[in-house]
Amino acid sequence: MTSGESAVSRRSFMKTSAAIGAAIAGAPAILRAEDKARTKPPVMGTGDHTYELVEGWGQLPEGKRFGNTHAVVESEDGRVFIHNASPTGDATCIFDPDGKFIKSWGAQYKSGAHGMDIRKEGNQEYLYLAETSQRIIAKTTLDGEVVWEKHYPKMSRDVKNGKVVPCYHEPNEKFSPTFIALAPNGDFYVTDGYGSNYVHRYNLQGDYLQTFGGAGGKPGTTQDPGKLSCPHGIWCDTREPENPMIVVADRSNVRLQWFTLDGRFIKMVTHELRHPCHFDQRGTDLLIPDLKGRVTIFDKDNNLITHLGDNPNSKEWANNRVPQKDLKPGVFCTPHGAMWDKQGNIYVVEWLPYGRVTKLRHVSA
Length: 365
Prior knowledge:
Number of domains: 2
Structural class: mainly beta
CATH superfamily of the largest domain: TolB, C-terminal domain
CATH topology of the largest domain: Neuraminidase
Radius of gyration: 26 Å
Helix content: under 10%
Number of strands: 27
CATH architecture of the largest domain: 6 Propeller
Distance between the termini: 67 Å
CATH class of the largest domain: Mainly Beta
Largest sheet: 5 strands, antiparallel
Order of helices and strands: HEEEEEEEEEEEEEEEEEEEEEEEEEEE
Strand content: 35-45%
């Protein structure tokens, strides 16, 4: 190498080093901007159905743990109730709207905590519970005082091969209730989703009235209208106030079915569903947590408005074994229950052994 080439090389090296140094010096500012963008809460939905993730909502205090989080409801004063299979005995956990823990109760229900709904009767609100492992339904106060508990309906009957036969032949045989729907007239309806595939109807006093449904159907088809396979969730659809109907999440058949209040089949929907679990209603919109990785909103005609938190990884759909470290903010794996609060925010609870509660804040389009 000549002395001239050496000098040029040194000058080139110094220029290159200075450029690299400048780039390195500027790098932290660039990374900070990227980090800031990365921490912006995810936004999902469309138009007036746009929502922003509220990260970290609903943390439990030390010593308490969620199990599979199955149901969520809101009381008249805005408290949020989470029903879950808590290993620490905190089957019903109560939070304020900001996610601050208030109290918990329900150790007797911890293994089977599943369905929950809420209704005001007179001047008091009550919770209606469907407890799968205990094979019971229950009515309690908001503080957990038990009003009644009921096992399988002994009087329930079905017609098979032209004969009237009991739905259950032994105490609690096949009875594993999943959710309860509350009708305006005081009646309530119980889905035996993990048991017999029937829907049982009771009056306000808890007296058994009738049974409809029963096993049948084929996934994704309109075969056997009125028959069910894992009727998991149930809701009293009052989007037509003068014509309330019972809608059932016929989960294994991947369809929704509507019935009159006395159990006569009306119609069904099979589109935009993967594994529908339950319902909530706001105005003329219907909210459907779908166990296979998303939450769906239908309009008054049961047409799709939007999917929320749709998970692109089908391996995580309805997968109870997704490691907690693999969860992604605003992306769902196993939505099991969902509701709108009075402000139009959405809460989603997922079937995961460590529990997962997500709040989606309603934002302007």
